[in-house]
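Module 6 notes. Inverse folding takes a fixed backbone as the condition and produces residue identities as the prediction. Think of it as a translation problem where the source language is geometry and the target language is the twenty amino acids. Below is one complete input and output pair. Work through it position by position during the lab.
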């Protein structure tokens, strides 16, 4: 894998993480892990979902963005066009970052789309949602 390809994916996966995770809880985790490096899994439980992820019905616009992403990723996977499928995921993340309330159902559907490309991250976020 080319170095440039790896470098290009990391910012995207970081944005996905920040879309789902409460920044204050992540800071709290990092400080606790620095103070007690042997804390392991118990410290990981301090990381919480972002407060913007709520059990609310999605708006029409949120559903439009989700369904456009589902359609594009499905078509691209069927055609083995992985880069453009990931691009559709990036478009979704960019849109969702601006939502004041992120419906939990929409975010869960996004994780299903993300899973083939970043299974470990998708699983970790799914477990928390």
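Target side of the pair, the amino acids:
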């Amino acid at each position: 894998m080319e170095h440039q390809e790896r470098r290009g994916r990391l910012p995207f996966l970081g944005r996905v993480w920040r879309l789902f995770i409460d920044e204050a809880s992540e800071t709290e985790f990092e400080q606790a892990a620095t103070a007690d490096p042997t804390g392991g899994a118990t410290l990981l439980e301090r990381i919480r979902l972002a407060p913007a992820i709520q059990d609310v019905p999605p708006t029409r616009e949120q559903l439009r963005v989700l369904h456009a992403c589902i359609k594009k990723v499905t078509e691209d996977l069927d055609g083995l066009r992985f880069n453009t499928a990931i691009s559709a995921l990036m478009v979704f993340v960019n849109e969702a970052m601006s939502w004041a309330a992120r419906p939990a159902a929409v975010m869960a559907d996004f994780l299903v789309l993300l899973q083939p490309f970043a299974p470990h991250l998708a699983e970790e976020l799914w477990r928390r949602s």
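Reference fact for the lab report: The longest strand covers residues 53-54.
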